[in-house]
Amino acid sequence: MGYFGKxxxxxxxxxxxxxxxxKNRTTSxxxxxxxxxxxxxxxxxxxxxxxxxxxxxxxxxxxVGTNSIFIYLFAExxxxxxxxxxxxxxxxxxxxxxxxxxxxxxxxxxxxxxLFLWYITYYLDKRKIYFKV
Length: 133
What we know:
Blueprint: H1 2-16, H2 27-50, H3 59-66, H4 68-77, H5 79-91, H6 102-126
């Protein structure tokens, strides 16, 4: 199911010239991201539940999963204020001379933001602070 959703989404983008990004919420994006999500879910279900492979590397995902509501709300409310400064830094500030590496800098920026949000949830998890609905 996940494989077919992913394939249909990418073929829809390829043959009908629909852009493939989240802001537009196109059919191709929905099918492709849904397919990838189902494949990831199936993979981790197989690794963790079927094979019984439970090691410390899963703690990385467990930290995010315990406070997923907080991380979403933080990124949507206060995150824009903090992460806007990254954009200013990349475009007009310190890293402006590295304009030719802008794509790589954007990947680095995304990874830094992910690490920052993960650390916040790690801090909350260590102090047993959990947000519930």
